[in-house]
Amino acid sequence: MQTDQTMNYSNATSSERRLWGVSMIVAPLLFFVSTFYWERGEYTVVGGTLLVVATAFWIPALLGLFSLLKDKLPNYASWGLLIAICGCISGSNFGMRGIYANVFGISKETLLREAAIHSVSFNITLFMSGPLFPLSLLVLGINFLRKKVVPGWVGYLICLGAIAFPASRISRIELIAHIADALLLIPIAYIGWQLLAKRYVADQSTLAVKT
Known about the structure:
Elements: E1 2-6, H1 14-34, E2 38-39, E3 42-43, H2 45-67, H3 74-103, H4 108-117, H5 119-127, H6 132-147, H7 152-171, H8 174-197, E4 200-203, E5 206-210
Antiparallel strand pairs: 1-5, 2-3, 4-5
Keywords: Membrane, Transmembrane, Transmembrane helix
Protein name: DUF4386 family protein
Transmembrane segments: 20-38, 44-69, 76-100, 120-142, 149-169, 175-196
C-alpha cells in the first residue's frame, strides 16, 4: 500500500539520487559523531575535521531535500536552498575555527577579543550566518509537513532537531548536542536510505514511497 506522501525525484538522474542518498546519511552522521570529540564544549582537531567533511556532504544532501519541494514550492526550493548552503558554510567555518584554535593554542577569550575587533567578518562568516542552518532546517521541516511530501514523523523530527540544534550549541552541553544531532540524523538518513534502497515506484511525474 502506498502512503499519500510522494517523494518527487522523477527528474533526477540515478547518479544524483545515489549521491543525495549517500549524503543524507553521511552528513548528519558525521555531525552526530563530531560532538563526541568536544572538549569543554569546543570542537577539537578531530571534531572540527569531521564537521568540515560533513559540510561537503550536507550540500548535496540539501539539494536532494529541497528537490522534494521544487514542484510545490519552486521559489522556496531555490532561494531556501541558497540560505541553507550559507548556513552550511558557516558550520564548516566553526569546524576550521576549532582546528586552528587547537593547533595554534588560541584561547576562546583571545578568539572572542579578536572577533570583536573584526566584527563584520566574524558575523558574516560565523555568528550571524551560523543560525541560518538550523533555521533553514526548521522551515524545511514545516514545509514538509504542510505539503505532505514525506511521512509526518520525518517532518516533526526535523523540526525538533532544528530547534534543539542551536540550544545545544549555545549551552555547549554534550548530551543535548547528541540528542539534537540524533533528531536530525534519524529522519534525514531515513530519506537517504529510501533513495539508496530504491523503494520508489514510478507514477507519472512523481515517485511514491512504498510502506
